[in-house]
Amino acid sequence: QVQLVESGGGLVQAGGSLRLSCAASGGVFSSDVVGWYRQAPGKERELVARFTSGGNTNYADSVKGRFTMSRDNAKNMVYLQMNSLKPEDTAVYFCNANLYIRGAYWNAWGQGTQVTVSP
After folding, report:
1. Which residues pair with 25 in a beta bridge?
2. CA-CA distance, 9 to 92, in Å (whole number)?
3. Which of the 8 DSSP states describes residue 109?
4. Rounded-to-integer distance, Cα 29 and Cα 14, Å
């Protein structure tokens, strides 16, 4: 069974930093279909950052220059470093990825981790 588990969320003051982690089990992260999303109360889920097939990373305009997405293939982990946090970054953050297992890719979502930024 493929599974993604996020961690690292919490409460932080504006201007602070958090690092989110996404651990994969049951499969290996694909090279490009890996992304972080967030959903604030009353709003739709939105893309925060994702790897591209060209080996780059795309970021939402609202987080460019503040967030950095990275990966550790040896640990089968993906990270989201969030700096200069703003109250409008408050949301549940989700990891989404294709995981490779037994010759096929399976798409999975994590359960989400809450990030709350106080003014």
Report:
1. 3
2. 9
3. E
4. 32
